[in-house]
Amino acid sequence: MDMHPILEVKHLTTSFSVDGRSVAAVRDISFTLHRSEAVGLVGESGCGKSITALSIMRLLPEPVARQTAGSIILDGVDLGSLPDRQMRAVRGGRLAMVFQDPFTSLNPTMRLGDQVAEAIRAHAPMTGREARDRALELLRSVQIPSPETRMRQYPHQISGGQRQRVMIAIAFAGSPEALIADEPTTALDVTVQAQVLSLMTDLRTRTGAASLLITHDMGIVAETCERLLVMYAGRIVEQGPVAAVLRQPRHPYTEGLLASLPSIDGPRVGRLQSIPGQPPPLTAVYRGCAFADRCPRVMDRCRTEEPPTVVTGAGASASCHLLA
Amino acid sequence: MLDRLRKSPVAWLSALVIVSMAAGALFAPWLAGHPYDAVSRDHVLAGPMPGHLLGTDHQGQDLWARLLYGARVSLSIGIIVEVIMACIGITLGLLAGYRGGWWDIGLMRITDAMFAFPDILFAIMLVGILRPASAFASFLTVFVALALVNWPGMARLVRGQTLALREKEYVEAARAVGVPSGRIILRHLLPNMASPILVAATVDIANVVLAEATLSFLGIGIQPPYPSWGRMIADALPYLRSAPALLFYPSAALAALVLAFNFLGDAVRDSLDPRLRS
Questions:
Q1: Rounded Cα–Cα distance for residues A128 and A135 (Å)
Q2: Residue ranges, chain A, pLDDT below 50
Q3: How many structural domains comprise chain B?
Q4: Closest approach of B108 to chain A, Cα-based (Å)
Q5: Is the Cβ–Cβ distance between B146 and B208 less than 8 Å?
Q6: Residues linked to residue A180 through DSSP beta bridges, in sequence order
Q7: What angle do CA B112, B80, B96 make, to 5 degrees?
């Protein structure tokens, strides 16, 4: 792996304005993506995963939400400094995104082939015929059966799994260097999930695109990712190589997430465990650690002091008072 | 899309009605048999008879001839005004909805102001300001007045649709692959709001044709002796008891035209929606 990261997120903070107040949904997060590396970003609903993705794509619904601090650097270029026109060339070009719901992410009034061709032509000047040929090629590469027929069909005529394959084809239309996949398999059946994930892994290794896989499924991360970022209440609370984090989670939140998974070979524990309570609402004002109220090993310090980020191993760190 | 349209009998029938009315309007001088303003003193309020296919009105003018010439006014007003106002309304609605912010606020306040104007009053004002000298000028004035009065409804509809559609995931997905705004508007927003636009437009055509009738009735629309269906309806009212046919023919023609536009609009909408295709 070369040491120069493709995507570098530094101290990203994204805030919403709620009733005139500024509320941070993503708080000072930093991470890097290297070439052909897959990184998982996990956390409960509402922890800021999708907002992180939209911040990187610069697709936040401004002025309601805006990046208030930090920078996003793609291959040495600060995306925040790019004018809109150049940012548009980056989107879908060097930086692509796969959305969560394949049922709503395709335009119902456009033929599938046209939608793939549109993504191609947004980044490469070519004739309609050339774009269609390339679209056919892309549909073939995402293993869609009888792509010639599919080209002329509309989204409602194909299954969810097929649609997600089309979305992936669209994402790869601009030969991206980095791909953000926001829960790409959440809306799919389990068997189809596995197929789509293996397709994405396959394309990633073939094209060398780095990918950030946003999910709440630890199983998917374990299967497909090399590194893991655990997000809670807008912060990255733990990160590191997947194997190391899964074997020995350092943050009580990561522990809780793992404990809430059923284990196939471990002892039967009756009911599945869960983390009591809910993540704090974005608007909550708290001192110290955001997880304190739900943490089984909470200490007095947790409610007053912000936990330090401690290096826990090679490329691994966690933010918790227990480690200090 | 055309395939489906061709298979729908309702679409066929509606198109037939509109086309035959348009043909009647276009070839009126050859089909009418009388000039629209020819007065026959011997036959006033006459029923159908040789030489007067549908009879005559209170001034002894041939009803069939007036119906044909009247179609010129009603059809052209309906279609041209509709096209003009749809263009204005769709453009402003898209701009306000897609750009948002000050564009939205500014354009929508103008729309509100236009809405607040009583439309007939606005048209009267416009006629008063422009003082059309010739019959053709007054014709044009009616066009402009009706288009200017009627676009706000379309603008609001399109703005609302734009606001709803631009939050759709496929629009966001299109932006995420770098599709330019113009293309997003033309390929992703407009086709997905075609149904409500078409439905509103076909209903609007009916309203525009009726508004022209109102203006003509008030004497500021189409100037007599030139006929329009609205004028003919207005003129027929005093003779409702003695000669109901005077009211019946233009009303029936107007109703048929409006219905044909409505049905055609429905059929076009259905054929535009890929989900309804078998």
A1: 10
A2: 1
A3: 1
A4: 19
A5: yes
A6: A97, A212
A7: 30
CB atoms inside a 10 Å sphere around CB A316: 18
The pair of structure tokens assigned to A1 is 């792996």
* 3-state SS class at A78: strand
Higher pLDDT, B47 or A46: A46
Do the beta carbons of residue B200 and residue B85 sit within 8 Å? no
Q: What are phi and psi of B118, to 5 degrees?
A: -65, 125
Domain of residue B124 covers: 2-277
A109 to chain B, any CB pair closer than 8 A? The answer is yes
pLDDT for A270 equals 66
Q: Which residue has the tokens 């007053």?
A: A304
Q: Say if residue A84 is exposed, middle or buried (CB neighbours under 10 Å; 0-12, 13-18, 19+).
A: exposed
| CATH number of the domain residue B78 falls in | 1.10.3720.10
Which DSSP symbol is given to A299?
-
Tell me the domains of chain A and their CATH numbers.
7-94+174-238 (3.40.50.300)
When pLDDT is cut at 50, 70 and 90, the band that residue B2 belongs to is: low
Q: How many CB pairs under 8 A join A and B?
A: 83
Handedness of CA B267, B271, B272, B277 (dihedral sign): positive
* Residue A230 in contact with partner chain B when CB distance is under 8 A: no
Q: Is the pTM of this model over 0.90?
A: no
Peptide bond into A61 cis (omega under 30): no
d(CA A4, CA B116): 62
Q: Per the CB < 8 Å rule, is B188 touching A108?
A: no
Q: Which DSSP letter does residue A281 get?
A: P
DSSP letter string, A60-83:
--TTTEEEEEEEEEETTEEGGGS-
